[in-house]
Each structure stands twice: as structure tokens, then as C-alpha cells.
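Review form for a predicted model. The reviewer records the input and the model, then writes brief findings.
Reviewer: anonymous (R2)
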Amino acid sequence: MIEETRREYAGLISKKRANQLAYGARYAVKKVFAPKKFANGVFQRTVLEENGKEKTLVLWNDETRFAGKALRAGTVVGLKNFYEKNGELHSTKNLQVSVIREAEPLPLLDGEPQNFSAFVTEKSGGEPFKLVVAGKTRATVNCWDSNLEVAEKSGVGERVCFEGARWSEGEANAGWDCLVHLCSGPAAKPGEIKKEGVCEGRITALYEARQTNAGILALIGAVEGERTAFFGADAETILDADCDLPPETILELKRRYIKGKTIVFVAHRAGNGLTCKQLLKIS
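Model under review:
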């Protein structure tokens, strides 16, 4: 973008000046609040920092959907087409937000942090909308307001980021002062699971499929080389066992099709291998 701007001025401006023209004013994003709905529209606040001084950016209506998507705590952004009034920054007709430096990925849930990411394992409707999520540990997150809408749209196995969660009695709460959004990034590798957590990897081997003495389907294989056991509905999902054939036969018929698939699952370390406690996603 900087070089394009210099070309517009026939190379007669410095890189520093081109940088200013290309990105406008630079700010570090300190905190992003969730959008709030009122009778006359949607409102969102973002706390920015410039040279050690904090300023609040105010967004309304469509701006919250477009410019708001680029605003994440920890990013450095450039703003164009805005004005300042009483210490607040307001858009003119067409606010432009350019991400100059991305934020570091939020760490997977471990304990009770304010800022974290986790994978959705369960959803429960109502208000608040409850998400059961897992990273290195599990937790229930209560989502209100616009965060409720994000929670409703999230799918089991998707990674979700929480910026500014408040904890009470072991549960996280995502109200107006917390931002919830879908985010990308892999889970831990199977070999990184010490006790329990969400991991992701390719199915690298399939050893056996059988009915246990209790009549439960068991599938034994390996994910990224880690011996892993799947039981019941999770084993059926991986085998795609939709016929009355013995599980041993289904495995032989579908081995090539299954091997190499990527799965996301909640794993428990048991001895020298893993046990799948919940299969979240297979692709």
C-alpha cells in the first residue's frame, strides 16, 4: 500500500509521508466492546491508544459490521475519514480501517483468563445463551446481547475467541464489555495433551474395530502417531457405520477412505495413549 501511494505521487514523497497518507492515523487497539442495540441503531465502543493516551472510537450501525471486524484487541490499525470531538473519534461518511499489525492469537482456555480462545463442545439456547467450550480445560460461557447472536451461529468444533470475559463461580460471562467472535487456528497436537484437552490431527493408522463385551463399538487407531481409542457414537461417526455389517468388515472396506482425515476432539491421556471423550469435527 505504501509503494502504491508513492506511485500516485510520482515518487515525490518519502516512505514516511506515504505511510501517513496510506494508513492515516495509527492507533493500538486496547479493548473492543460488544455492539449494543438501541431503538435508534447499533452502537459500539473501542478503546484506542496513541502515544500513551487513550481515546474512544465510536461506531454506529453498518460501521459496527464492517470497520468493527478489523478491530481486535492487540492489533495496530490505521484510521482514515474520522474527526475528534470531546476526546472521542467519530466517523465521517466512510471510515476506513487498515490493519497494520495483527494481534497475537489468543491462547487456549486454561484456568480463568479474561482473554482466551476455545472450541465449542456444546450449545444451549435461551438467554443467556450457554456455550460449553474446551481448550486445555473446560468451561461454560454465558453470552448476552450481540454475543448471544455470535454464540447461536457458532458450530460445535469451531474455535471462538473471548476478549474481556468476567468469571463468577467457575463460569465465564460475556456481556456488553466482552467481545465474542469466531477465530481461526489449530488446536493442540495429540502429543501435547498431558491430561485432557482439545487436540487436532490426521488419522494416521487404524488398527481394529470391534464390539466390546458391553456391546459398545470400539475403534482403535492413531492420530498423528498417538495411539487413540474411540467408543460408541464417536467410533460410529468415524467409521460412518450406517449398515449392519460387522465393524471389522466396515473398517476393512473404509480404511483407505478414513485414513488421512483430520479430526478435532476432546482427548484424555490414559497410559501411553489417548481416549476420545468427545469427537467435535471430522473433515
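Findings: The mean pLDDT is 87.
Further findings: The domain at 190-282 is CATH 2.40.50.140 (OB fold (Dihydrolipoamide Acetyltransferase, E2P)).
Recommendation: see findings above.
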